[in-house]
Amino acid sequence: MKKIKTAENKKKAGPQKKSSLTIQIALGVAILFALAAVGGLLVNFAETPNTTLSPTWRKELDASVSALTEKIEKDPKDADAYVSLAKVEQQLGNNQKAVEDATHALMLDKNVNHAYIIRAWAYGGLGQFDRAVKDCDTAISITGKDEEGYNTRAWNKINLKQYQSALDDLNKAAALNPNYAQIYVNMGWAHNEQKEYVKAIADLTRALAIDPGNRAALTLRADAYEQSGDSAKAAEDRAQLK
User: What is the CATH number for 221?
Assistant: First the structure.
């Protein structure tokens, strides 16, 4: 079965007050993994530019890099600026640079939990799934309850073929935010990998009820339908991807 990147970010729910930066980083993970889902394969983790960005968006991200770099030059101890820069670099596909910037932020403030999440995304982009899992462990330990920490850790565990452990994490994430569609996308992916297609279809149908048109969910559900012998429904889902 094709492996599909499906982890996305969304605003978090937890005991700590979330900064505007926490909300801003939601866009980064959504784009990285949604674009990967459209591509359909989890095969190449080389450090390559993200060529799927629109010219306008790339221009905006490049401008953000320049502005954040200037901000850091003025205040080298601005941990949030390093986190923001890591987010932008990761969106651009510069995962190693994102790792370096997030690491610098954590050297300044080891309790910035969203820096661990961004670094986990970047490690995942580099295929370093074990490191990503460890960063998610730390992020979760800081907040106590972190739906994106559980979700991102689950995504990396699926890549490590740790399917049941990933599902355990996804159930915890769903308990924190039952309306987070990407949790159910990842559940469906894990069940697909386990060849539990009926469960996968149920998970992905729930994801689509929350987020109609979710391309990762449609791609995975089409695969599950095909594997379970329902080619007609598989074709219906694939038609929506055109």
Answer: 1.25.40.10
Cα–Cα separations (whole angstroms), residue 225 to 47, 153, 157, 192, 230: 34, 27, 24, 10, 5
- Could you tell me if residue 150 is inside a domain? yes
CB neighbourhood size of 202 (10 A): 17
Residue 6 domain-assigned (yes or no): no
The C-alpha atoms of residue 116 and residue 103 are separated, in whole angstroms, by 8
227 Cα distance to chain centroid: 26
Both structure tokens of 190? 């894990």
Indicate the number of domains in the chain.
Answer: 1
- Reported pTM: 0.76
Q: Is the pLDDT score of 84 beyond 60?
A: yes
Domain residues for the domain of 197 are 20-239
Nearest to 189 by CA among 16, 37, 15, 29: 37
Residue 45 main-chain phi, psi, to 5 deg: -110, 25
pLDDT digits (tens, 9 = 90+) for 87-102: 999 999 999 999 999 9
Assess if residue 55 is contained within a domain: yes
Residues 6+ apart with CB under 8 A from 115: 79, 82, 83, 86, 102, 105, 106, 109
Residue 114 located in a structural domain: yes
What type of residue sits at position 61?
Answer: L
Q: Which long-range contacts (CB under 8 A, 24 or more apart) does 191-195 make?
A: 191/167, 191/224, 192/1, 192/220, 192/223, 192/224, 192/227, 193/1, 193/3, 193/158, 193/161, 193/163, 194/163, 195/227
Q: Using an 8 Å Cβ cutoff, are 119 and 134 in contact? A: no
